[in-house]
Amino acid sequence: MKTRDKFLTGILLVLIGVLLGMILTFFRDGAISIDLAEVRVTDINRSDQPFLTTEDLEKIDDRFLFRSVARSVTPTVVYIETVVTTRNRRARNEEGEEENRFWERFVPPRIQTVGSGVLISSDGYILTNNHVIEDAIRNGITVTLDDKRTFDARVVGGDPSTDLAVLKIDGDNLPAATIGNSDRLEVGEWVLAVGNPFRLRSTVTAGIISALSRDVQIIENARRIESFIQTDAAINRGNSGGALVNTSGEVIGINTAIATQNGNYQGYGFAVPSNLALKVSRDLIEFGEVKRGKLGVSIQSVNDRMARRAGLENISGVMVMSIERESAADKAGLRQNDIVLEVNGEMVNESNQLQEKVAMYRPNEEVSLTIWRNNEIIQKSVLLDEMEQPEPPRSTFDPDENELDEWDEIPEGGRERGVEQQRFESLGMTLRALATPEDPGQFNIYIHRVVPGSEAWNRGLKEGFEIIEIDGEPVSDLQVVEQKITNSIKNNRSLTLKILTSERATGYFQIN
C-alpha cells in the first residue's frame, strides 16, 4: 500500500473513531432516555353553563356521575412529549465532568419529558405547566390527543411565577374544555384529576378538595404566586399540566405538584386555580407575556397577636408591613400596619391569597380594598402599577462584591477586606456585613441568602434586604446582630426587624 493511501486510511479511521465516540456519548447522555416530568385572543370556553347543569346532575345516578364527567372531559386533556436539552438544567444543578462538557459542544445532551395539557380553545391553544415544556429544543414538542391524533406544537409563552405555559397546535373544531370559577370552590367537593401519569394516557382519578389557598413554596421564582388547590385525587409524574375538574365537568384547576417523600403520590396533590390559570393564558395568547398588576407593598398574614394589637375581633386579613415610595399603594393612601380584609369584596386571610387576587388584574386596572385602620373599616381604590421583571439586588459595596457574592463562605481575612458573614440555620438565612465606602469601620448588614420554606422565608424576608434596626435599636455590627438573634432563639423571644428593601422602602418584619 502506498504511503499516501496509508495516510488517508489513517485519517479516515480517526474520523470514524471520533464519529463513533460522538454517537456513544449522545446515547450515553440520555438522548433517548425517558425522564418523566415532575409533578411539580381566542375563544376560550368560560360559560356559566357547565357541561352538566344542576338539572342534569339530578337525573344522573351517583354511580354513573364520574363516568359522565370523565367521558366529557377526557377528550380535552392531551399528552405532551418534549425533547429538552439538559445543558441549562445541569448548569442550574451541578457542573458536569470536563469530558462531558467537551462533547456537549458538539452534541448537546437531550432527554425526553412527558406531561399533560388541557385544550382551552377549539383552534388549538393548550394550557400546561411551564416546567413540562421548559428548555424544549426547536420543534421538540409533540402533542397527542385522546383520539391518538398527533400534532407538532409551538410555545406561545410561559410564566415561571405561576408555573404555567400555553402551547399552540394547528387544528380546527378540536374538543375544548369549559373553564369553571375556582373562587366558588369549597373544601369537601368531589373532583377528578385527568392526565397521563407514568405514560398511562387518559388516566382519571377521583378525590375531594382537601384545602384551598395552599402556599407550598414549590415554585422556584422570585415572583412566585402560590395559592394552590389541594386534593387527594391521585396525581403522579406525568400528570403535570392536566385537568382538575368538578362534578359539572368544569376545569377548576391545572394539576402542578405533589407533596411526597418518595417521588410518587402520597395523598397530597396541588393545582393552580382555574381563574388564575385563565388570566395567565389569556395574557400569554394576547401579549406573549403576562401583564400583572402591582400594589407595591410587603405583606404578612395576620396572626393572633397582630389581631389583638389592631383591635380586630377575629383573626383575619393581611397586614401591610411596608410600602414602596410612589407605588400604587402609596398613591392610594395606604399606610403601614393597614390590614387588608377584602379585595373587590372577596375576603383575604393569607398573604398568598392577596397576591393571587392582585395577580388577577392587569396594570392600570382599579381594585377596591377593604381596610381595617384605627378600629374602623375604610375603603381604598388602587390603580395598579405594572409588575416589573425582578433584578438581582445590588448593595453599596465596591466592585469586588461581585466576586464575593459567589462565595458560600467568607475566607480568612474577610473583615480586613470589608466583609463578614454569619449563617443562622434555625431561621434559614445568612447575613453579610459590608463595609461602607465612607467609613471602612462601619458595616451595613444585608440578608445574603434565604432558604425556601424557612422561618425567614415564611416571614417575607428576601435576599438583598438591609437590616437597619432590631427591636428599635440601630445595628451596624454583625456580632451585635448575631448576639441579639441568638439570645432571642435561646429565650424563645420574638424580634422585630426594621428593613430597607431593595426598592429603598422601609418595613418591619417579626421573627418568632
| Name of the level-1 CATH class of the largest domain | Mainly Beta
By secondary-structure content and strand pairing, the structural class works out as alpha+beta
* Residue runs with pLDDT of under 50 for 5 or more positions: 27-41, 90-99, 102-106, 390-417
> What is the mean pLDDT?
76
Distance between the ends: 85 Å
CATH fold name of the largest domain: Thrombin, subunit H
In percent, how much strand structure appears in the residues? 25-35%
Question: In short, what is this structure?
Answer:
The chain is an alpha+beta fold and 512 residues long.
Note down, in words, how this protein is organized.
It is globular, with a radius of gyration of 27 Å. It has 512 residues and is an alpha+beta fold. It is 23% helix and 33% strand. Strands 22, 23, 24, 25, 26, 27 and 28 form a 7-stranded antiparallel beta sheet that branches.
What labels would you give this structure?
Thrombin, subunit H, 28 strands, alpha+beta, 3 domains, 512 residues, 33% strand, 23% helix, Pdz3 Domain
Helix and strand layout, with pairings?
Blueprint (H helix, E strand, L loop, with lengths): L2 H26 L25 H6 L2 H12 L3 E9 H8 L4 H7 L5 E10 L5 E5 H4 L2 E9 L5 E10 L4 E5 L9 E2 L10 E6 L7 E12 L13 E4 L11 E4 L3 E9 L10 E5 H14 L5 E2 L2 E5 L2 H7 L7 E6 L4 H5 L6 E5 L2 E2 L3 H9 L6 E8 L2 E8 L1 E2 L14 H4 L14 E6 L4 E7 L7 E8 L4 H4 L7 E5 L2 E2 L3 H13 L4 E6 L5 E6 L1
